[in-house]
Write a structure and sequence with these properties.
Length: 119
């Protein structure tokens, strides 16, 4: 197994604990050859903006929600945030509604893509 750090500086193959103290084995990241902007294809999201991308497929709950909400605090009106998840982020949608973000999701072979932006 590769021991290259992911985007959060975490190493594959290491045992970690999540927010609730549950231990898990960090797996090797998925190999995604798709261009980040290509995830917006077929979504009703702005395509003329810059794309900020986050792959949360390997993160245990509630880290995908936490990491996404942390990244959205710095989102500007010129950027579309794209989250790639292994499941539909059902707990994310009400938080986006509360904060006034526009969003849409679609299933892809790689997982569920959710585009989030300021309207």
């Amino acid at each position: 197994m590769s021991h290259a750090p992911n985007v959060f500086g975490r190493l594959a193959g290491e045992t970690e604990s999540n927010t609730f103290g549950v231990s898990f084995l960090r797996c090797r990241p998925h190999d995604t050859h798709m261009d980040r902007e290509a995830y917006l294809d077929g979504l009703d999201a702005p395509t003329e903006r810059a794309v900020d991308f986050l792959d949360v497929r390997e993160l245990p709950p509630p880290e995908p929600l936490t990491e996404t909400m942390n990244r959205l605090t710095d989102l500007d009106g010129e950027t579309v945030f794209v989250q790639l998840n292994d499941r539909e982020p059902k707990f994310l949608y009400p938080k986006l509604d509360d904060r006034g973000f526009a969003y849409c999701s679609a299933e892809r072979d790689e997982g569920v893509v959710t585009a989030i932006w300021e309207p």
